[in-house]
Protein backbone atom coordinates (compact mmCIF):
# COMPACT_ATOMS: atom_id res chain seq x y z
CA UNK A 1 0.00 0.00 0.00
CA UNK A 2 1.26 3.45 -0.84
CA UNK A 3 2.13 6.00 1.82
CA UNK A 4 -1.03 8.05 1.31
CA UNK A 5 -0.52 10.18 4.41
CA UNK A 6 3.01 11.09 3.34
CA UNK A 7 1.88 11.89 -0.21
CA UNK A 8 -0.90 14.15 1.07
CA UNK A 9 1.41 15.96 3.46
CA UNK A 10 4.04 16.51 0.77
CA UNK A 11 1.38 17.85 -1.61
CA UNK A 12 0.14 20.32 1.01
CA UNK A 13 3.66 21.48 1.80
CA UNK A 14 4.61 21.93 -1.86
CA UNK A 15 1.44 23.88 -2.62
CA UNK A 16 1.96 26.12 0.41
CA UNK A 17 5.58 26.71 -0.60
CA UNK A 18 4.64 27.56 -4.19
CA UNK A 19 6.40 24.53 -5.65
CA UNK A 20 3.14 23.26 -7.17
CA UNK A 21 1.14 25.63 -9.38
CA UNK A 22 -2.06 26.34 -7.46
CA UNK A 23 -4.59 29.12 -7.04
CA UNK A 24 -5.27 31.12 -3.90
CA UNK A 25 -8.06 28.85 -2.63
CA UNK A 26 -6.04 25.65 -2.99
CA UNK A 27 -3.13 27.26 -1.16
CA UNK A 28 -5.43 28.33 1.66
CA UNK A 29 -6.96 24.82 1.89
CA UNK A 30 -3.47 23.32 2.17
CA UNK A 31 -2.38 25.91 4.72
CA UNK A 32 -5.51 25.19 6.76
CA UNK A 33 -4.61 21.50 6.88
CA UNK A 34 -1.03 22.23 7.92
CA UNK A 35 -2.24 24.58 10.67
CA UNK A 36 -4.65 21.93 11.89
CA UNK A 37 -1.87 19.36 12.11
CA UNK A 38 0.19 21.81 14.15
CA UNK A 39 -2.81 22.52 16.41
CA UNK A 40 -3.24 18.81 17.05
CA UNK A 41 0.41 18.50 18.04
CA UNK A 42 0.60 21.60 20.23
CA UNK A 43 -2.86 22.15 21.69
CA UNK A 44 -4.17 19.47 24.08
CA UNK A 45 -7.63 21.05 23.91
CA UNK A 46 -7.83 20.79 20.10
CA UNK A 47 -11.07 18.81 19.68
CA UNK A 48 -9.93 16.79 16.65
CA UNK A 49 -7.36 14.10 16.00
CA UNK A 50 -5.59 12.97 12.87
CA UNK A 51 -6.08 9.27 12.12
CA UNK A 52 -3.58 7.78 9.65
CA UNK A 53 -5.70 4.66 9.21
CA UNK A 54 -8.87 6.53 8.28
CA UNK A 55 -6.93 8.85 5.98
CA UNK A 56 -5.31 5.91 4.20
CA UNK A 57 -8.41 3.70 4.21
CA UNK A 58 -10.45 5.73 1.75
CA UNK A 59 -7.47 6.04 -0.61
CA UNK A 60 -6.66 2.33 -0.49
CA UNK A 61 -10.32 1.53 -1.14
CA UNK A 62 -10.35 3.85 -4.16
CA UNK A 63 -7.28 2.21 -5.68
CA UNK A 64 -8.88 -1.24 -5.57
CA UNK A 65 -11.73 -0.09 -7.81
CA UNK A 66 -11.57 -0.29 -11.60
CA UNK A 67 -11.62 2.39 -14.25
CA UNK A 68 -14.94 2.08 -16.02
CA UNK A 69 -14.33 3.97 -19.26
CA UNK A 70 -11.42 5.06 -21.43
CA UNK A 71 -7.95 3.57 -21.77
CA UNK A 72 -5.68 3.56 -18.74
CA UNK A 73 -2.23 2.19 -17.94
CA UNK A 74 -3.60 0.52 -14.82
CA UNK A 75 -6.77 -1.61 -14.57
CA UNK A 76 -7.55 0.05 -11.24
CA UNK A 77 -7.75 3.68 -10.22
CA UNK A 78 -4.45 5.35 -9.35
CA UNK A 79 -5.05 8.50 -7.33
CA UNK A 80 -3.08 11.63 -8.06
CA UNK A 81 -1.47 13.51 -5.13
CA UNK A 82 -4.14 16.22 -5.17
CA UNK A 83 -6.88 13.61 -4.91
CA UNK A 84 -5.05 11.84 -2.10
CA UNK A 85 -4.74 15.15 -0.27
CA UNK A 86 -8.46 15.88 -0.59
CA UNK A 87 -9.72 12.41 0.33
CA UNK A 88 -7.31 11.82 3.20
CA UNK A 89 -8.01 15.23 4.70
CA UNK A 90 -11.77 14.76 4.59
CA UNK A 91 -11.72 11.28 6.12
CA UNK A 92 -8.56 11.52 8.22
CA UNK A 93 -9.70 14.22 10.61
CA UNK A 94 -11.86 12.75 13.38
CA UNK A 95 -13.69 14.09 16.41
CA UNK A 96 -11.99 13.24 19.69
CA UNK A 97 -15.27 12.88 21.52
CA UNK A 98 -16.62 9.96 19.49
CA UNK A 99 -14.21 9.19 16.63
CA UNK A 100 -16.63 10.35 13.96
CA UNK A 101 -15.61 12.38 10.96
CA UNK A 102 -14.82 15.99 11.72
CA UNK A 103 -16.15 17.21 8.38
CA UNK A 104 -19.83 16.79 7.65
CA UNK A 105 -19.96 19.04 4.58
CA UNK A 106 -17.66 19.04 1.55
CA UNK A 107 -17.56 21.51 -1.33
CA UNK A 108 -15.38 20.30 -4.25
CA UNK A 109 -15.21 22.70 -7.22
CA UNK A 110 -13.00 21.95 -10.21
CA UNK A 111 -13.10 22.25 -14.01
CA UNK A 112 -14.76 19.46 -16.01
CA UNK A 113 -12.93 16.23 -16.88
CA UNK A 114 -10.99 16.31 -13.60
CA UNK A 115 -12.64 13.09 -12.33
CA UNK A 116 -14.85 14.65 -9.67
CA UNK A 117 -17.76 12.33 -10.58
CA UNK A 118 -15.45 9.30 -10.38
CA UNK A 119 -14.26 10.33 -6.93
CA UNK A 120 -17.87 10.94 -5.80
CA UNK A 121 -18.75 7.42 -7.00
CA UNK A 122 -15.85 6.03 -4.97
CA UNK A 123 -16.99 7.93 -1.88
CA UNK A 124 -20.54 6.67 -2.37
CA UNK A 125 -19.39 3.05 -2.33
CA UNK A 126 -17.04 3.66 0.59
CA UNK A 127 -19.75 5.26 2.74
CA UNK A 128 -22.13 2.44 1.85
CA UNK A 129 -19.69 -0.35 2.69
CA UNK A 130 -16.92 0.76 5.00
CA UNK A 131 -18.07 3.20 7.67
CA UNK A 132 -20.00 0.79 9.87
CA UNK A 133 -23.20 2.83 9.70
CA UNK A 134 -26.43 0.85 10.25
CA UNK A 135 -28.49 0.84 7.03
CA UNK A 136 -26.39 3.48 5.29
CA UNK A 137 -28.53 5.28 2.74
CA UNK A 138 -26.64 7.12 0.02
CA UNK A 139 -28.50 9.61 -2.16
CA UNK A 140 -27.05 11.00 -5.38
CA UNK A 141 -28.96 14.13 -6.30
CA UNK A 142 -28.75 16.31 -9.37
CA UNK A 143 -30.83 18.78 -11.37
CA UNK A 144 -32.10 15.95 -13.59
CA UNK A 145 -32.23 12.17 -13.40
CA UNK A 146 -29.80 11.99 -16.31
CA UNK A 147 -27.28 14.16 -14.46
CA UNK A 148 -27.58 12.02 -11.33
CA UNK A 149 -26.49 9.06 -13.44
CA UNK A 150 -23.11 10.78 -13.94
CA UNK A 151 -22.19 9.63 -10.45
CA UNK A 152 -24.51 6.64 -10.00
CA UNK A 153 -23.48 4.90 -13.23
CA UNK A 154 -19.74 4.85 -12.36
CA UNK A 155 -20.56 3.55 -8.88
CA UNK A 156 -22.76 0.79 -10.34
CA UNK A 157 -20.15 -0.22 -12.92
CA UNK A 158 -17.39 -0.24 -10.30
CA UNK A 159 -19.47 -2.63 -8.22
CA UNK A 160 -20.27 -4.87 -11.18
CA UNK A 161 -16.58 -5.07 -12.13
CA UNK A 162 -15.41 -5.83 -8.58
CA UNK A 163 -16.78 -9.26 -7.57
CA UNK A 164 -14.82 -9.24 -4.32
CA UNK A 165 -16.58 -6.06 -3.23
CA UNK A 166 -19.99 -7.47 -4.17
CA UNK A 167 -19.34 -10.68 -2.24
CA UNK A 168 -17.78 -9.05 0.82
CA UNK A 169 -20.65 -6.64 1.42
CA UNK A 170 -23.57 -8.44 -0.22
CA UNK A 171 -24.13 -5.83 -2.90
CA UNK A 172 -26.72 -6.01 -5.66
CA UNK A 173 -26.28 -3.57 -8.54
CA UNK A 174 -29.70 -2.86 -10.01
CA UNK A 175 -30.58 -0.49 -12.84
CA UNK A 176 -31.66 2.30 -10.49
CA UNK A 177 -30.09 1.39 -7.16
CA UNK A 178 -27.27 -0.47 -5.46
CA UNK A 179 -28.51 -2.35 -2.41
CA UNK A 180 -26.66 -4.06 0.40
CA UNK A 181 -27.80 -7.12 2.31
CA UNK A 182 -28.87 -6.15 5.80
CA UNK A 183 -29.97 -2.69 4.72
CA UNK A 184 -28.47 0.24 2.93
CA UNK A 185 -28.50 1.49 -0.64
CA UNK A 186 -27.20 3.98 -3.18
CA UNK A 187 -29.97 5.66 -5.14
CA UNK A 188 -30.07 8.52 -7.68
CA UNK A 189 -32.72 11.18 -7.24
CA UNK A 190 -33.57 14.31 -9.22
CA UNK A 191 -34.28 17.90 -8.21
CA UNK A 192 -38.05 17.56 -7.85
CA UNK A 193 -37.43 18.30 -4.21
CA UNK A 194 -41.08 18.28 -3.17
CA UNK A 195 -41.14 14.52 -3.79
CA UNK A 196 -37.89 13.79 -1.96
CA UNK A 197 -38.86 14.30 1.70
CA UNK A 198 -38.61 11.40 4.13
CA UNK A 199 -35.05 10.25 3.41
CA UNK A 200 -32.52 9.72 6.19
CA UNK A 201 -29.21 9.60 4.32
CA UNK A 202 -25.78 8.77 5.67
CA UNK A 203 -24.25 10.41 2.59
CA UNK A 204 -25.85 12.91 0.26
CA UNK A 205 -24.06 13.70 -3.00
CA UNK A 206 -25.14 16.79 -4.93
CA UNK A 207 -23.75 16.78 -8.45
CA UNK A 208 -23.22 19.99 -10.43
CA UNK A 209 -24.93 22.12 -7.83
CA UNK A 210 -24.44 25.20 -10.02
CA UNK A 211 -27.07 23.79 -12.42
CA UNK A 212 -29.82 23.43 -9.78
CA UNK A 213 -32.61 25.89 -10.60
CA UNK A 214 -33.50 26.36 -6.94
CA UNK A 215 -32.22 25.34 -3.52
CA UNK A 216 -35.01 22.81 -2.94
CA UNK A 217 -33.01 19.58 -3.25
CA UNK A 218 -30.07 21.05 -1.35
CA UNK A 219 -32.34 22.00 1.57
CA UNK A 220 -34.13 18.63 1.55
CA UNK A 221 -30.88 16.66 1.78
CA UNK A 222 -29.11 19.10 4.10
CA UNK A 223 -31.98 18.90 6.57
CA UNK A 224 -32.41 15.12 6.38
CA UNK A 225 -29.38 14.03 8.40
CA UNK A 226 -30.95 14.43 11.84
CA UNK A 227 -30.88 10.77 12.90
CA UNK A 228 -27.31 10.13 11.67
CA UNK A 229 -24.28 10.40 13.94
CA UNK A 230 -21.75 10.68 11.12
CA UNK A 231 -23.48 12.31 8.12
CA UNK A 232 -21.76 13.74 5.08
CA UNK A 233 -23.02 16.18 2.44
CA UNK A 234 -20.76 16.00 -0.62
CA UNK A 235 -21.11 18.83 -3.15
CA UNK A 236 -19.31 18.61 -6.49
CA UNK A 237 -19.57 21.23 -9.18
CA UNK A 238 -17.94 23.30 -11.84
CA UNK A 239 -18.39 27.06 -12.03
CA UNK A 240 -21.72 28.42 -13.21
CA UNK A 241 -23.54 31.67 -13.86
CA UNK A 242 -26.02 32.25 -11.02
CA UNK A 243 -24.27 34.23 -8.31
CA UNK A 244 -27.57 34.42 -6.38
CA UNK A 245 -28.06 30.64 -6.27
CA UNK A 246 -27.35 28.08 -3.57
CA UNK A 247 -24.13 26.89 -5.22
CA UNK A 248 -22.46 30.29 -5.17
CA UNK A 249 -23.81 30.78 -1.65
CA UNK A 250 -21.92 27.67 -0.51
CA UNK A 251 -18.86 28.70 -2.49
CA UNK A 252 -18.89 32.13 -0.83
CA UNK A 253 -19.25 30.51 2.58
CA UNK A 254 -16.21 28.36 1.86
CA UNK A 255 -14.09 31.27 0.66
CA UNK A 256 -14.83 33.11 3.90
CA UNK A 257 -13.75 30.05 5.89
CA UNK A 258 -10.52 29.79 3.91
CA UNK A 259 -9.95 33.54 4.22
CA UNK A 260 -10.38 33.28 8.00
CA UNK A 261 -13.45 35.52 8.07
CA UNK A 262 -15.72 32.76 9.41
CA UNK A 263 -15.06 29.66 11.53
CA UNK A 264 -16.74 26.42 10.50
CA UNK A 265 -14.83 23.35 11.64
CA UNK A 266 -17.39 21.01 10.06
CA UNK A 267 -16.99 22.41 6.53
CA UNK A 268 -14.17 21.36 4.20
CA UNK A 269 -13.78 22.53 0.66
CA UNK A 270 -11.41 23.29 -2.17
CA UNK A 271 -11.71 25.36 -5.34
CA UNK A 272 -9.44 24.71 -8.31
CA UNK A 273 -9.58 27.80 -10.51
CA UNK A 274 -7.35 30.45 -12.02
CA UNK A 275 -6.53 33.50 -9.94
CA UNK A 276 -8.18 36.83 -10.59
CA UNK A 277 -5.16 38.37 -12.37
CA UNK A 278 -4.33 35.29 -14.45
CA UNK A 279 -4.76 35.09 -18.19
CA UNK A 280 -7.01 32.01 -18.54
CA UNK A 281 -5.63 31.40 -22.05
CA UNK A 282 -2.07 31.07 -20.72
CA UNK A 283 -1.18 27.34 -20.53
CA UNK A 284 1.08 28.07 -17.54
CA UNK A 285 -1.97 28.67 -15.31
CA UNK A 286 -4.10 25.77 -16.55
CA UNK A 287 -2.95 23.38 -13.76
CA UNK A 288 -4.63 25.71 -11.27
CA UNK A 289 -8.09 24.82 -12.54
CA UNK A 290 -7.14 21.42 -14.01
CA UNK A 291 -5.13 19.51 -11.39
CA UNK A 292 -5.53 16.35 -13.50
CA UNK A 293 -3.91 18.02 -16.51
CA UNK A 294 -2.04 15.37 -18.47
CA UNK A 295 -4.01 12.57 -16.83
CA UNK A 296 -7.78 12.74 -17.41
CA UNK A 297 -7.54 16.22 -18.93
CA UNK A 298 -5.63 16.03 -22.18
CA UNK A 299 -3.39 19.01 -22.93
CA UNK A 300 -4.17 18.83 -26.65
CA UNK A 301 -7.92 18.96 -25.99
CA UNK A 302 -7.55 21.94 -23.70
CA UNK A 303 -5.38 23.73 -26.25
CA UNK A 304 -8.00 23.10 -28.94
CA UNK A 305 -10.76 24.47 -26.70
CA UNK A 306 -8.67 27.55 -25.94
CA UNK A 307 -8.00 28.19 -29.63
CA UNK A 308 -11.69 27.85 -30.48
CA UNK A 309 -12.62 30.25 -27.69
CA UNK A 310 -10.11 32.81 -28.96
CA UNK A 311 -11.43 32.56 -32.51
CA UNK A 312 -15.12 32.36 -31.62
CA UNK A 313 -16.25 34.81 -28.91
CA UNK A 314 -19.42 32.80 -28.42
CA UNK A 315 -17.34 29.95 -27.00
CA UNK A 316 -15.32 32.01 -24.54
CA UNK A 317 -17.85 31.77 -21.73
CA UNK A 318 -18.00 27.98 -21.96
CA UNK A 319 -14.19 27.79 -21.99
CA UNK A 320 -13.98 29.96 -18.89
CA UNK A 321 -16.70 28.22 -16.88
CA UNK A 322 -16.17 24.60 -17.89
CA UNK A 323 -12.46 24.48 -18.70
CA UNK A 324 -11.05 27.09 -16.31
CA UNK A 325 -13.73 26.94 -13.61
CA UNK A 326 -14.44 30.68 -13.63
CA UNK A 327 -17.82 32.04 -12.52
CA UNK A 328 -18.60 34.38 -15.37
CA UNK A 329 -21.52 36.30 -13.90
CA UNK A 330 -20.53 36.07 -10.26
CA UNK A 331 -19.97 39.54 -8.85
CA UNK A 332 -16.42 40.12 -7.67
CA UNK A 333 -15.83 41.08 -4.05
CA UNK A 334 -14.63 44.65 -3.68
CA UNK A 335 -12.58 44.34 -0.49
CA UNK A 336 -9.25 42.50 -0.26
CA UNK A 337 -10.06 40.53 2.88
CA UNK A 338 -6.45 39.56 3.63
CA UNK A 339 -5.41 43.20 3.70
CA UNK A 340 -8.53 44.20 5.63
CA UNK A 341 -7.89 41.62 8.36
CA UNK A 342 -4.42 43.05 8.89
CA UNK A 343 -6.03 46.34 9.98
CA UNK A 344 -6.70 44.96 13.47
CA UNK A 345 -4.92 47.70 15.40
CA UNK A 346 -6.05 48.71 18.87
CA UNK A 347 -9.08 50.95 19.31
CA UNK A 348 -8.97 52.26 22.91
CA UNK A 349 -12.31 53.88 23.65
CA UNK A 350 -11.10 55.45 26.89
CA UNK A 351 -8.33 57.31 25.08
CA UNK A 352 -10.73 58.43 22.35
CA UNK A 353 -13.59 59.82 24.42
CA UNK A 354 -12.70 63.49 23.91
CA UNK A 355 -11.19 63.15 20.44
CA UNK A 356 -13.48 64.64 17.76
CA UNK A 357 -15.31 61.84 15.93
CA UNK A 358 -18.03 61.11 13.41
CA UNK A 359 -20.78 58.50 13.54
CA UNK A 360 -22.66 56.56 10.91
CA UNK A 361 -26.01 54.76 11.09
CA UNK A 362 -27.45 52.16 8.74
CA UNK A 363 -30.93 51.39 10.04
CA UNK A 364 -32.11 48.07 8.68
CA UNK A 365 -35.69 46.96 8.20
CA UNK A 366 -37.52 45.81 11.30
CA UNK A 367 -36.16 42.26 10.99
CA UNK A 368 -32.79 43.04 9.45
CA UNK A 369 -29.29 43.97 10.62
CA UNK A 370 -28.89 47.51 11.94
CA UNK A 371 -25.43 49.05 12.39
CA UNK A 372 -24.06 52.05 14.24
CA UNK A 373 -20.39 53.03 13.88
CA UNK A 374 -18.03 55.72 15.13
CA UNK A 375 -14.77 56.83 13.47
CA UNK A 376 -11.83 58.87 14.75
CA UNK A 377 -8.94 60.34 12.76
CA UNK A 378 -5.74 60.12 14.80
CA UNK A 379 -2.27 60.82 13.41
CA UNK A 380 -3.30 60.02 9.85
CA UNK A 381 -5.09 56.81 10.85
CA UNK A 382 -8.80 56.03 10.95
CA UNK A 383 -10.02 54.16 14.00
CA UNK A 384 -13.51 52.69 14.16
CA UNK A 385 -15.79 50.93 16.63
CA UNK A 386 -19.43 50.01 16.36
CA UNK A 387 -22.60 48.29 17.51
CA UNK A 388 -24.94 45.96 15.59
CA UNK A 389 -28.55 44.92 16.26
CA UNK A 390 -30.80 42.05 15.24
CA UNK A 391 -34.20 40.93 16.60
CA UNK A 392 -34.21 37.82 18.75
CA UNK A 393 -36.56 35.92 16.40
CA UNK A 394 -34.14 36.33 13.48
CA UNK A 395 -30.94 35.15 15.17
CA UNK A 396 -31.38 31.36 15.08
CA UNK A 397 -33.01 31.02 11.62
CA UNK A 398 -30.46 33.38 10.07
CA UNK A 399 -27.64 31.41 11.72
CA UNK A 400 -28.97 28.18 10.25
CA UNK A 401 -30.07 29.45 6.84
CA UNK A 402 -27.16 31.77 6.12
CA UNK A 403 -24.43 29.80 7.93
CA UNK A 404 -23.36 33.02 9.67
CA UNK A 405 -22.47 32.84 13.39
CA UNK A 406 -25.05 35.34 14.66
CA UNK A 407 -25.60 33.27 17.79
CA UNK A 408 -21.89 33.22 18.63
CA UNK A 409 -21.58 36.93 17.93
CA UNK A 410 -24.47 37.60 20.30
CA UNK A 411 -22.53 35.78 23.06
CA UNK A 412 -19.05 37.16 22.31
CA UNK A 413 -17.74 40.28 24.02
CA UNK A 414 -16.00 42.87 21.85
CA UNK A 415 -14.61 45.91 23.63
CA UNK A 416 -17.15 45.79 26.43
CA UNK A 417 -20.24 44.99 24.35
CA UNK A 418 -21.39 41.91 22.42
CA UNK A 419 -20.53 41.81 18.75
CA UNK A 420 -24.28 41.68 18.17
CA UNK A 421 -26.99 43.23 20.36
CA UNK A 422 -30.14 41.10 20.28
CA UNK A 423 -33.42 42.89 20.93
CA UNK A 424 -36.53 41.10 22.15
CA UNK A 425 -39.30 40.06 19.79
CA UNK A 426 -39.71 39.66 16.06
CA UNK A 427 -38.48 43.12 15.04
CA UNK A 428 -35.48 45.25 15.92
CA UNK A 429 -36.34 47.48 18.85
CA UNK A 430 -35.41 50.92 17.56
CA UNK A 431 -35.73 52.26 21.10
CA UNK A 432 -32.61 50.26 21.99
CA UNK A 433 -30.82 51.71 18.98
CA UNK A 434 -31.92 55.24 19.90
CA UNK A 435 -30.78 54.72 23.49
CA UNK A 436 -27.31 53.74 22.29
CA UNK A 437 -27.15 56.66 19.86
CA UNK A 438 -27.92 59.07 22.68
CA UNK A 439 -25.29 57.36 24.86
CA UNK A 440 -22.69 57.74 22.10
CA UNK A 441 -23.58 61.42 21.67
CA UNK A 442 -23.08 61.96 25.40
CA UNK A 443 -20.02 59.74 25.79
CA UNK A 444 -17.97 60.85 22.78
CA UNK A 445 -17.12 64.09 21.04
CA UNK A 446 -19.41 63.52 18.03
CA UNK A 447 -19.19 66.23 15.39
CA UNK A 448 -21.80 64.76 13.05
CA UNK A 449 -23.80 61.58 12.55
CA UNK A 450 -24.50 60.43 8.99
CA UNK A 451 -27.46 58.18 8.28
CA UNK A 452 -29.17 56.47 5.39
CA UNK A 453 -32.55 58.25 5.22
CA UNK A 454 -34.39 55.05 4.25
CA UNK A 455 -36.50 53.93 7.21
CA UNK A 456 -34.87 56.42 9.59
CA UNK A 457 -36.84 59.67 9.26
CA UNK A 458 -38.76 59.40 12.57
CA UNK A 459 -35.68 58.50 14.58
CA UNK A 460 -33.51 61.17 12.95
CA UNK A 461 -36.17 63.86 13.46
CA UNK A 462 -36.44 63.10 17.20
CA UNK A 463 -32.69 63.27 17.56
CA UNK A 464 -32.49 66.44 15.50
CA UNK A 465 -35.11 68.12 17.69
CA UNK A 466 -32.92 67.35 20.70
CA UNK A 467 -29.93 68.98 19.06
CA UNK A 468 -28.17 65.92 17.61
CA UNK A 469 -25.85 66.75 14.67
CA UNK A 470 -27.70 64.58 12.16
CA UNK A 471 -26.68 64.62 8.48
CA UNK A 472 -28.60 62.70 5.82
CA UNK A 473 -26.26 60.72 3.55
CA UNK A 474 -28.07 59.90 0.36
CA UNK A 475 -27.00 56.50 -0.93
CA UNK A 476 -25.92 57.59 -4.39
CA UNK A 477 -22.65 57.98 -6.24
CA UNK A 478 -22.27 61.65 -5.32
CA UNK A 479 -22.43 60.96 -1.58
CA UNK A 480 -20.58 57.65 -1.35
CA UNK A 481 -17.85 57.64 -4.00
CA UNK A 482 -15.46 59.81 -1.99
CA UNK A 483 -16.07 57.84 1.20
CA UNK A 484 -15.61 54.46 -0.50
CA UNK A 485 -12.39 55.50 -2.23
CA UNK A 486 -11.09 57.00 1.00
CA UNK A 487 -11.84 53.77 2.87
CA UNK A 488 -10.08 51.78 0.14
CA UNK A 489 -7.03 53.98 0.48
CA UNK A 490 -6.95 53.69 4.26
CA UNK A 491 -7.22 49.93 4.56
CA UNK A 492 -4.94 49.16 1.59
CA UNK A 493 -2.25 51.42 3.06
CA UNK A 494 -2.72 49.86 6.50
CA UNK A 495 -4.07 53.09 7.99
CA UNK A 496 -7.37 51.61 9.26
CA UNK A 497 -7.76 50.23 12.79
CA UNK A 498 -10.89 48.15 13.49
CA UNK A 499 -9.57 46.11 16.41
CA UNK A 500 -10.21 42.77 14.69
CA UNK A 501 -13.96 43.37 14.48
CA UNK A 502 -15.40 40.11 13.07
CA UNK A 503 -18.79 41.50 12.06
CA UNK A 504 -17.34 44.48 10.24
CA UNK A 505 -14.85 42.20 8.48
CA UNK A 506 -17.67 39.84 7.44
CA UNK A 507 -19.76 42.71 6.08
CA UNK A 508 -16.75 44.14 4.25
CA UNK A 509 -16.04 40.75 2.68
CA UNK A 510 -19.57 40.73 1.21
CA UNK A 511 -19.32 44.10 -0.52
CA UNK A 512 -19.69 44.26 -4.28
CA UNK A 513 -19.05 47.66 -5.86
CA UNK A 514 -21.36 49.25 -8.39
CA UNK A 515 -19.48 51.57 -10.78
CA UNK A 516 -20.79 54.13 -13.24
CA UNK A 517 -19.34 55.35 -16.52
CA UNK A 518 -17.60 58.28 -14.82
CA UNK A 519 -15.54 56.07 -12.51
CA UNK A 520 -17.72 56.63 -9.42
CA UNK A 521 -18.50 53.71 -7.11
CA UNK A 522 -20.89 52.79 -4.37
CA UNK A 523 -21.83 49.51 -2.62
CA UNK A 524 -24.42 47.36 -4.36
CA UNK A 525 -26.76 45.74 -1.86
CA UNK A 526 -28.48 43.96 -4.74
CA UNK A 527 -25.34 42.22 -6.00
CA UNK A 528 -23.79 41.58 -2.59
CA UNK A 529 -24.69 38.02 -1.58
CA UNK A 530 -24.83 38.77 2.14
CA UNK A 531 -25.21 41.64 4.56
CA UNK A 532 -23.05 44.75 4.17
CA UNK A 533 -24.83 47.02 6.68
CA UNK A 534 -21.86 47.51 9.02
CA UNK A 535 -19.65 48.52 6.08
CA UNK A 536 -22.37 50.94 4.94
CA UNK A 537 -22.58 52.50 8.41
CA UNK A 538 -18.81 52.98 8.28
CA UNK A 539 -19.14 54.66 4.87
CA UNK A 540 -21.82 57.00 6.23
CA UNK A 541 -19.49 58.03 9.06
CA UNK A 542 -16.60 58.63 6.66
CA UNK A 543 -18.91 60.50 4.28
CA UNK A 544 -19.90 63.04 6.92
CA UNK A 545 -16.29 63.43 8.01
CA UNK A 546 -15.41 64.30 4.42
CA UNK A 547 -18.65 66.26 3.95
CA UNK A 548 -17.63 68.71 6.64
CA UNK A 549 -15.31 70.13 3.99
CA UNK A 550 -17.81 69.94 1.11
CA UNK A 551 -20.58 72.18 2.44
CA UNK A 552 -23.61 70.05 3.34
CA UNK A 553 -26.85 71.80 2.51
CA UNK A 554 -30.21 71.91 4.27
CA UNK A 555 -33.23 70.06 2.94
CA UNK A 556 -35.63 72.62 4.38
CA UNK A 557 -36.43 70.57 7.49
CA UNK A 558 -33.37 71.67 9.36
CA UNK A 559 -31.60 68.47 8.33
CA UNK A 560 -28.21 68.66 6.65
CA UNK A 561 -27.78 66.56 3.54
CA UNK A 562 -24.73 65.38 1.61
Structural notes for this entry:
The chain is an alpha/beta fold and 562 residues long. The chain folds into three domains: 1-100, no CATH class; 113-237, 3-Layer(aba) Sandwich (Rossmann fold); 337-561, 2-Layer Sandwich (Nucleotidyltransferase, domain 5). Helix content is 40%, strand content 18%. It is elongated, with a radius of gyration of 26 Å. The chain starts with a helix and ends with a strand.
Annotate the secondary structure layout.
Layout: H1 4-17, H2 24-42, E1 48-50, H3 52-62, H4 81-92, E2 93-95, E3 105-109, H5 116-129, E4 137-141, H6 145-160, H7 163-169, E5 171-173, E6 178-180, E7 185-189, E8 203-207, H8 216-222, E9 232-237, H9 246-259, E10 267-271, H10 286-289, H11 299-311, H12 316-323, H13 337-341, H14 349-352, E11 356-362, E12 370-378, E13 381-391, H15 392-402, H16 406-411, E14 413-414, E15 417-418, E16 421-423, H17 430-443, E17 445-451, H18 457-465, E18 470-472, H19 477-492, E19 496-497, H20 502-509, E20 513-515, E21 521-523, H21 533-547, E22 553-554, E23 560-561
Parallel strand pairs: 3-9, 3-10, 4-7, 4-8, 8-9, 11-17, 13-16, 13-19, 17-18, 18-23
Antiparallel strand pairs: 1-2, 5-6, 6-7, 11-12, 12-13, 14-15, 20-21, 22-23
Helix pairs in contact: 1-2, 1-4, 3-4, 5-6, 11-12, 19-21
| Strand segment tally | 23
Name of the top-level CATH class of the largest domain: Alpha Beta
Tertiary shape: elongated
Radius of gyration based on Cα positions: 26 Å
Low-confidence stretches: 549-558
Taken together, the total number of domains comes to 3
